[in-house]
Amino acid sequence: MSNENKFIKDVYINREYSWLMFNKRVLDQATDPTNPLLEKCKFLSIFHSNFDEFFMVRIGSLINDAKVNGDAKENKTDLTATEQVDGILKLAKGYYKAADAVYAKLKSELNKNGLKIRTGKELSEKQYSKCKQYFTSSVLPLLSPMVLDAKHPMIKFENMNSYMMFELSKSDRLMYGVMAISQKLPRVYKIDGGKKVNIITVEELIRTFGYLAFEGYKIRSQAMLRLTRNADFDANIDDNDIERDFDFSKFLKHKVELRGTQDAVRLQIDEGADDIKAFLLKLLGLKKQHCFTARHGFDFKYMMSLGGYVDPEHVSSLKYKPQRPLMPPVLPECSVLEAALNHDIFLAYPYDSMDTLVRLLDECAVDPRVASVKITIYRLDHRSRIVEALKKASENGKEVTVVIELCARFDEENNLYFSEVLKDAGCTVIFGCGNYKVHSKIISIVLMDGDKLRYVTHLGTGNYNEQTSKLYTDLNVITSDENIGADAVAFFRNLAICNIENSDYGKLLIAPHTLKSGLIKYIERETKKAADGKPAYIFAKMNSLTDKTIIEKLIAASKAGVQIKLVIRGICCLVPGVKGKTENISVISIVGRLLEHSRIYCFGTKSDRAMFISSADLMTRNTDKRVEIATPVIDGEIADKIYGMLCVMLADNVKARRLTEDGTYMPVDMIGEAINSQESFLKGKFSL
Predict the structure, then answer these.
(1) What are the residue numbers of the active site?
(2) Cα separations (Å) of 52 from 31, 216, 415, 678?
(3) Model-level pTM?
């Protein structure tokens, strides 16, 4: 059995393997001729960044699983954690090799467009002299070289930081030298002179001139390296001696601090220097399979900002054409709050601006009718206007409750900071509910309009983050529906009293109690329709599909004859098109200019259509282990618009890739006109 085939069994695909295929689709965008050059460079950077997080989180988690219960098998392809890690590491080496080839191609294209990324060996004599002078004056003072001996023991390699290591000799004595690459150093140095712009990375400067830090020693060999550590940690409060004054924020701070010292899961190192590599693998307790040769560096974030080095007159042709978000046409004439009280408002980011939602919160902060504002927060912009509006509301005497999820991975410190800021402003701050992550996106606004209580509720598929709203596709509804408003009030009350598992709601589907079962009822409704010989349809869009119970329900629906069309950006553990099992299911993935992030679940058509937007993917972690919300779209015009968007995405034949019955992804056949769904939406075309 080939390494790839063991990750596919019957109608199931292993989760980790499916993610690898997703990241390969990201890498494919770095060579896609429909993307401008600088955008292709960004996709290569995203590919490497994705892999960094994958090793820290998913490989780290699997290694933890192997230690706890090495014989346990995952429920789709019956692979143990160790079998998954071994297979993934083999495949990852192939993906890195492909990325090396992409980098070489992009470097050549950049050179043709007047930007040359130099290595030390490519420097002219004049450039070498300038780089050496810059290294000596501006880089060397920020390096801390150290020789390793009895009085200078081995340093602790920090997670994701680069180091230069040397095999040294002096008076026939052999030893190692090491120095960390300071995070304060600029990532790129621009070399003055020449017709073309010449740049060199700080990594390459240190490879070339790092020996100068070890004056008096002979350099026998050298290598730059970077270590990746396990960043997966358990923040369950059950493991602690909980007292009434227990502070979860302090507990989490301690956990975050430990992240940089956990076991190593990956070593990246320059080619050659076999003795240094062998020394490090033994020191770190790593097997050779965890070691990856780096041919073009480790940190590719600098490729996101290469436009700053290109001729300003030329740079626009190498990037996507800028697109300004649209504003809902009915809103500038009156306040957002008044508009929401009169009719539902639909916002599709980034095609619409998040400014509308910020305006709503700003208005609530000063409107005398507003009694309370309650919000769930998962990720925030570092300069959040949402936080400023909430502070203002609290300072103006409104009751403001913020449920902030401290365990949002890699945003823990940002959320810890904002939790203190909001508490200082007088807001009531709650850190989630038990061991469930609160991933839902909801704002509950309660107004006292005379003697009458009125509600305005925002429900969305994405975070309250102004920056990512310009890059992620997300859907939002602002409604004054009384039933949804009452559900929202009950939701926050249940969070506050930790009653999330047994609470029922009139309109909203809320995990972990009713979201999964609620969606399954609609899948079963369509299955029964098909069994009765009636037309039956399921249309859905999500980031990932891994929940086996839901997959089994979709398979049963397919067997009954339900036509199922899925748009899944990332992980999909279901193989479509298998005769007699999933032949009525089709799956496409769209990876393009924007990050597809919205979740849509649509059942039936026309008069019996039921449509939901949700914060939840159909993953077990979301349906069973998080607090998530799916809201029905009750406004007919909004539901029609979302359905139209689904149809455009399903017709995409430029960026879409089709998941085939053998578990691979292929370009969609180009039939008729070219349809790039994201570009269509950017132009305001939301239906076919």
Answers:
(1) 439
(2) 21, 37, 22, 27
(3) 0.93
